[in-house]
Design a protein that fits this description.
Number of domains: 3
Structural class: alpha+beta
Distance between the termini: 55 Å
Strand content: 15-25%
Shape: globular
Number of helices: 14
Largest sheet: 7 strands, antiparallel
Helix content: 25-40%
């Protein structure tokens, strides 16, 4: 049986002037942004403070998104409406009531959450006795009490119970009274508890700030006018998306890619798994069907929650392609954008698993799903997409120092493919995962790690009129005994080229002991002991090329050679560009070779 997810349109508002709607929209967005900045500044861990792996959003009482923090990642802010609806459903089943002063903690991947480590704190907003919405934050926490240290690289979890603590709509404050027992349970069952609990308390504070600001906004305009404005701004976003979809030719667009899975597994059902996307566009609506995607892996955590991961990968990619802010300017992000889009995913597939299938390592498969949506859209909007992206990996470094756990989560960048008129972006997080890299200074100041290399990976980008982006090379050395685990993708399959562009290049990961040869590791590595002096060398993937490489401006090829990004041999072989011994362009030989 297939499951379809779709948002229902809001009730049409009475007429309200567009200037008031715009002002209220801007106020909602500013509240979400303030929540985000307050969370960043109050957080203890670098994953929130530096990498910005958090979300902040305002949601109405029906669970419809109104605004989200612009500086947060779509994979954190985007799922917040799903968290709210999941919490409302669970509390209703229990017969519990939401009251003023409550703060609710939630991370259930089968009730709206993206995955277990992304814990949300929801503060309900009341005007008098009436619930009008929620101010909420999410954040990726360094540890969630899973089978090994860290909250990534838990790649051998056999079910949801092996992935750490499950918080299913838990009131950590009940009518303003702190539930000390819950907080103590959290402290007693997670590593690096001071960091994690400190980050959680920062989330509570940021969510409360958002609730206070929202009450001030409603009191300023009155509840009736405020609700009319919210309905109008969602309708406006819906119109923008419908217009963008309507410009595409009607048709059916299908694409397929694949994920590594567990390349070192003897079980064929755990590796080289297809992701299939079929987009049917009719008029101003779109159906995205994931039929054909591999079945869920019941005892490995690479399954993607339909609500919280798969839906965000799909909506974000469609929005980015059809409503590119470089072309369309500021786009309001709210429930209206997703109304024209229906998602179908067979129950029990990778993108719609059945509980208790584990989901904690859904990050990289979800990014590959987004890339597959991009590949399907390329057939309908070829000038608005990039070629294949180089996927990411996440590494959990950990250890004990003076009987205290230390944990560091490193989001290791990928790269974009080339696009019409632009080379792919180098060494960045891609698609729904736009977190920032972690500064070397921050790592070496707080952790027993040293970063020996951080540079672009040369001579591997997909060739094209617009070449693919380059991955990076980052080398970490342990300064004491510890451990590490890895969840990643992109070691088996090369990013796809487009319109004659060449394929990109896969990622790789080496473990180098103090003495001895480097050992290649697969894209997923369960927790392993690391000795003082061990080195991790991470090589990021390169994106695919866009367009015929022989149409690339020879001067651009020469510039890449002079910058050390492309070799003289590659310039000649892939681009037909001849560069002399004096490192200047040989115009005559280039024209002859290309001819």
């Amino acid at each position: 049986m297939s499951v379809a997810t779709r948002r229902q349109p809001a009730t049409k508002p009475d007429r309200i002037d567009p200037i008031t709607v715009s002002v209220i929209q801007g106020a909602l967005e500013n509240i979400a942004i303030e929540m985000g900045y307050k969370l960043m500044r109050m957080s203890y861990s670098s994953i929130i403070r530096e990498s910005e792996d958090f979300g902040a959003a305002l949601v109405d009482a029906e669970g419809r998104g109104l605004a989200e923090s612009a500086q947060s990642t779509p994979l954190q802010s985007g799922p917040i409406p799903g968290y709210v609806k999941g919490v409302q459903r669970i509390l209703a089943e229990r017969g519990e009531v939401i009251r003023p002063g409550d703060v609710i903690m939630h991370n259930d991947a089968y009730s709206g959450a993206s995955h277990g480590p992304d814990v949300a704190f929801l503060v309900p907003v009341f005007i008098g006795a009436r619930l009008i919405g929620f101010a909420a934050t999410t954040a990726h926490h360094l540890d969630i009490g899973a089978l090994s240290p860290g909250s990534c690289g838990i790649v051998e979890a056999i079910d949801a119970y092996a992935e750490g603590l499950q918080f299913k709509a838990i009131k950590v404050y009940d009518r303003g009274v702190r539930n000390d027992a819950v907080w103590q349970i959290v402290r007693d069952n997670i590593r690096a508890s001071n960091l994690v609990v400190g980050d959680m308390e920062a989330q509570v504070a940021a969510s409360r700030i958002g609730a206070e600001r929202l009450i001030e906004l409603v009191n300023r305009y009155g509840l009736e006018l405020y609700e009319q404005a919210c309905a109008a701004l969602m309708d406006h976003a819906e119109r923008l998306m419908r217009r963008a979809i309507a410009k595409l030719p009607d048709g059916v667009y299908r694409a397929e890619t694949a994920i590594d899975g567990y390349l070192d597994s003897p079980d064929a059902n755990k590796k080289e798994l297809p992701i299939v996307v079929t987009i049917t566009k009719t008029g101003d609506e779109m159906v995205v069907d994931l039929t054909g995607t591999a079945p869920q892996v019941p005892d490995r955590p690479i399954n993607m929650p339909l609500e919280g991961t798969a839906d965000i990968a799909i909506w974000l990619t469609i929005r980015s392609v059809l409503l590119d802010t470089e072309v369309h300017g500021h786009i309001p992000v709210n429930n209206g954008l997703i109304r024209p889009i229906t998602i179908i995913a067979p129950k029990g597939c990778l993108a719609n698993p059945t509980f208790p299938a584990p989901t904690i390592a859904r990050f990289c498969p979800g990014n590959q799903l987004a890339d597959t949506v991009m590949k399907a859209l390329a057939q309908a909007a070829p000038s608005s997409v990039s070629a294949g992206i180089g996927n990411l990996k996440v590494i959990a470094f950990s250890g004990l120092k003076n009987d205290t756990h230390w944990v560091h989560m490193e989001i290791f960048e990928g790269s974009y493919g080339g696009r019409d008129g632009k080379d792919g972006m180098d060494a960045v997080d891609t698609l729904y995962a736009n977190t920032r890299n972690n500064p070397i200074e921050d790592i070496e100041t707080h952790l027993p790690l040293r970063v020996l290399r951080y540079e672009l990976r040369e001579d591997v980008a997909g060739a094209g009129q617009w070449r693919g982006g380059l991955g990076s090379v980052r080398e970490f050395a342990f300064l004491c005994d510890g451990g590490a685990s890895v969840e990643g993708e992109g070691h088996r399959y090369r990013p796809w080229g487009f319109k004659g562009g060449g394929e990109g290049w896969p990622a790789k990961l080496d473990l180098v002991p103090p003495s001895g040869a480097a050992r290649a590791l697969p894209s997923k590595v369960p927790h392993m002991t690391m000795l003082d002096g061990n080195r991790f060398v991470c090589y990021g993937p390169a994106g695919g090329g866009y367009g015929d490489p022989l149409k690339r401006d020879p001067q651009a090829v020469l510039d890449d050679v002079l910058d050390g990004l492309v070799s003289v041999e590659t310039a000649k072989r892939d681009y037909g560009v001849v560069i002399g011994a004096d490192m200047t362009l040989d115009v005559t030989a280039t024209a002859s070779l290309r001819g």
